[in-house]
Every structure is written in C-alpha cells, then in structure tokens.
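INFO worker-7 received task bundle
INFO bundle size: 2
INFO processing item 0
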Amino acid sequence: MVSRTTWAGFSIMAAFGGFVVLMLAGESILDPGGWRSAGLIGSWLVPLIVLCLLGYYRPEIGLPVLAVAALAPVAFGVLLLLDYDRWREFEDSVGPVSLVLSLVVDIGLACAGLHRPWAAGWLMLAVTIVPLMLAVIGAGEDWRRALTIGVALLPMVLSGALFVVAGRRRGTDTAGSPAIGVDRLADRAGGR
C-alpha cells in the first residue's frame, strides 16, 4: 500500500512536472514552430514516457535505468562547472537544458517512487541538487544567478525528500525487501 507521504511526493512532482511539460511544449510550438517543434518536443517527451512507464510498471529494471539516466543532468552540471559562461550561453540560445534533463529523470523517478520510495527519493535529490551545486560553483562570482535559477527546482527537492521520508517510515523499499540502513549493514557484517 502506498503511504500518504509517498502520494504527496508523487503529487508534487506530477503537478510541477505537468506544469513545466505544458510550458515547454507551448514554448516549443510557439518559438520554432512546424516540424522542428515536433522534433524538439519528441526529443524529451519520448524518453520521459519511456522512463515513467519503466519506473511504474517495472521498478526493478526501471531504477537502474533511471540511475544511469541520472548521469545526464550530472554530466551537464560538470560542463557548467568547467565553463559556466559558454554553457549558459548555449542554454540561452536553445532552452533550459539542465531543467529538462533533471525533469525527465525526476518524473520517471517519481513513478518508480510509488513502489520504491527510498531509492527513488535519494536519486531525485541527487539528480536535482548535484547539477545545481556544480553550476553554482562553476558560476564563480555570478553564483547568485545560478542559485536563482535553482529556486525553480524546489518542488523536485521537496518531492524527493518526501519520498525519502516515506521510504524511511515504511522501512522497506518494496513489500518484501528491507531498505538497508547502516544499522542493518552492521548487523549483517557482524554475522547477527
């Protein structure tokens, strides 16, 4: 059974994700228009749908796939760390790449979080916070701009935190397997 905290985390991510998806689709249709907009929308909507379906229907396969997909926003964060001005200029010309990367992975993780909230929550927090912190560090004196843009990510952080709390309260990631904490690892290592 899915707890209220899990549903709260999922609802926040679904509402925020739905709003941003509609905004991105509308902007893509208005700005380039035509077939180019269809290609732009498809470039992030198809992976979003695939990750959501995989996370919800097959979380045992979906979580490792989502963990690999989580490398994309982190890699873009590393690019921002190395050359912030160049990659912000790139984002200004093509759109919010870092937001789209994080959003696609986080919405998929929210779907997986309905079954495995603890693991999905920690991955959501990593996918959202790590690229932001890399951008803030890479921005140097312009760190306020990077952090201001990061304020838009607060619903994703809140959703991830709710999933972590839900998984911790439940004590399990799935119905049959325990969420392994430090104390349980120590018990296993000691042979107890």
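INFO item 0 finished
INFO processing item 1
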Amino acid sequence: MKIFLLLTLIILVSCASTDYYYAKAVEKARKKAVGELPLLSDADRFEVKFGNPEIMRRRILDRSKSPYGSKNDIYHTWIVWRLPESDGQCVVVSGVGEGRMDDWTPGHVLIREIEKVEGEAEKVEKTSDEETNRKRAQ
C-alpha cells in the first residue's frame, strides 16, 4: 500500500501542466531581460518584472507532421513586453525550445518595435550530407 501511495505521489508531482512550463519560461525571460538591460527606466523595468508578456512563436522544426503542431515540434519563441515609457518599443526575449516550452532557454534580449507574428515559418528541409555535397559540386 505504501509503495502504491509513493508511486502515485511521484506521478502527480512529476506531471506538470503546460501553464507551469510557460510560467517557468517567462520567469527565465524576465531574469535575462532585467539582467541584460540595466538602463531601463523604473516604469519599464516594473513592466518587465511584473507585467504579463505576449508570447509569440513560429514552428521551425515539424517533428509531428501535423498541421496543429505537437509538444515535440521545435519553435522559435519570443516573449515580449510592451514598454509604457518607450513609445512603441518592446523588450523581446528570443529563444528556442519544444512546443510545451519545458526546455525553452532564452538566447537574446532586444529592445525594438515589433508587430504581430503572421504566417507560418518555413519548414526545415532535411538533406543528407551526400545530397548537400552533390549540390555544392554542381
């Protein structure tokens, strides 16, 4: 009986929701943005520390071959905060990870104007080394 309860507890603790992984990714992005942008105004820094960001993404590797996507597909994801004191400017933290964002890692931090991401990302075509070498030779 104790083993059953222990296994049940382990399963329940190890199964985190997608919202948990998104929140974890946002916290990573906040930490990176605040650390790399020390010259933000107080209002802009407050927005990054406590505001709700927009999450934008494009699929860059389609592992599932499904039009709806999968948690195993690889996405380029931007976590974006619109800055209140900087007219039209946003803090953008860019990173790559799987669709569920459980392994998302921030890569770059930018301040720029940004519009909504539209359209589908180009699919990555896999070619063998032999095909690549043949194309180079031509």
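INFO item 1 finished
INFO post-check item 1: The mean pLDDT is 76.
INFO post-check item 1: Residues 19-117 form one domain.
INFO worker-7 idle
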